[in-house]
Design goal:
Length: 397
């Protein structure tokens, strides 16, 4: 390591650049906190597209709330969020509407339906709109994003954006995330990729992304799959495309759904009781997602609850609590071939046959995380209550 005495001195031009960048980074926070007037030019003109004199495409912001707008003393509105982005109009003409201004976990399923219907209506009535940006709290952002991925039937981008730090916090990254969300929404390469989640310079598919850390800025990850692309200074860059059905290819029609059915998620853990499963059924669950251990194991003590649910026609989807990995549809004829491990006694008995029959009628979540499997199951139940139909949906979406 060079000593202080031998370390090369920074050229004065670098020192100046560092000072300018520091000022540039702080400005959006100041602008966000004391919006609406944007105070500065963009930090780097090189990041802006060349001016052609042609009006920029229009993108509509639908703001729902979340930390990105949660300024102490009063939440930022959609108008204020847009006003806090200096230089936005070099990329895009932003329109905005306030859908709600609450944290993500406060949004109801009725509001999800309303939001999806609204997004469809906007796209239907505005053929020239380039795309939508939806701001949302990060806690359940991945669920709403996947819901929009399945229900907005248009190939124009729906970009979901949030932030981990609020506008009153030093290092608020919401303004940068929002600007990047607009840039992704306006980029023609974003078409046909479904709903996209943009935070921290990264673009993830709504189907794959999950919040992996309660606090850190790099929380949104697509685990084994990785990002679809990145938002760099000069341009938006994609590396791969989602292959499952979504948006314009989706068969889910929210205009025909009055309300989403109750679907609960129950986790497998040591000695987990079956009575919680029974309670969910007795309280009206039409579907259950079991976040099984590893590749599909339930606790022996949950079997009675699963049998109770199956007898009442409740659809059971098996996912994994492992965080990634695929649960395959059950094809075996015996308990030994089943991933679920209940009481191993009684092979060939009536109990055994019951178990195998139940396994055949449960649905495998494939690689969907339990919260996403729940989203798909709620929509699936609006089209069918037949396990084989629902299994097809889990394979295709
Ligand atoms: N509590 C917030 C929410 O989900 C968290 C966030 O936005 O980051 O609305």
């Amino acid at each position: 390591m060079p000593s202080a005495r031998t370390a090369p001195l920074l050229p004065s031009s670098l020192v100046v650049a560092a000072v300018v960048l520091t000022v540039g980074a702080a400005a959006p926070l100041a602008a966000a906190v004391s919006s609406p007037a944007p105070a500065v030019r963009p930090a780097s003109r090189a990041a802006a597209p060349p001016s052609t004199g042609v009006p920029r495409p229009r993108v509509r912001l639908i703001a729902t709330g979340g930390t990105i707008s949660n300024r102490s003393g009063g939440r930022l509105t959609a108008d204020e969020l847009v006003a806090s982005l200096p230089g936005l109009d070099t990329w895009v003409r932003a329109e905005r509407e306030q859908f709600s201004n609450v944290s993500s976990s406060e949004l109801t399923l009725a509001q999800w339906l309303q939001l999806a219907r609204r997004a469809n209506e906007i796209f239907r009535s505005d053929r020239d709109l380039a795309g939508l940006v939806v701001t949302c709290g990060t806690d359940t952002l991945e669920e709403l994003a996947y819901f929009l991925h399945l229900t907005v039937r248009d190939d124009r981008p729906v970009v979901v954006v949030g932030s981990m730090r609020n506008p009153s916090t030093l290092g608020y990254e919401g303004a940068a995330n929002l600007l990047q969300g607009f840039r992704v929404a306006v980029d023609p390469a974003s078409r046909g990729l479904g709903a996209l989640v943009v935070l921290n310079d990264e673009i993830n598919s709504a189907r794959e992304v999950t919040k992996t850390d309660a606090l850190r800025l790099h929380t949104f990850q697509s685990r084994g799959y990785g990002v679809l692309g990145v938002v760099d200074q000069d341009r938006v860059v994609y590396y791969r495309r989602p292959v499952k059905r979504h948006t314009a290819e989706s068969e889910f029609d929210v205009s025909a759904i009055q309300a989403l059915p109750r679907v609960d998620i129950l986790m497998v853990y040591q000695d987990a009781p079956g009575d919680l499963i029974k309670a969910a059924v007795d309280n009206g669950a039409k579907g259950l997602v079991i976040a099984t251990a590893g590749a599909g194991a339930t606790s022996g003590t949950q079997e009675d609850g699963l049998a109770y649910a199956a007898e009442r026609g409740v659809i059971i989807v098996r996912g994994t609590r492992a965080g990634s990995g695929r649960i395959a549809p059950f094809r075996g004829a015996t308990r030994q071939a089943a991933p679920m491990v209940g009481n191993a006694e009684g092979q060939g008995s009536q109990e055994e046959n019951e178990f195998v029959r139940r396994m055949r009628t449960t649905v495998a979540a494939e690689d969907l995380a339990p919260v996403k499997a729940r989203v798909l199951l709620m929509l699936a139940l609006s089209t069918s209550r037949e396990p084989s139909d629902i299994q097809r949906l889990f394979a295709e979406y």
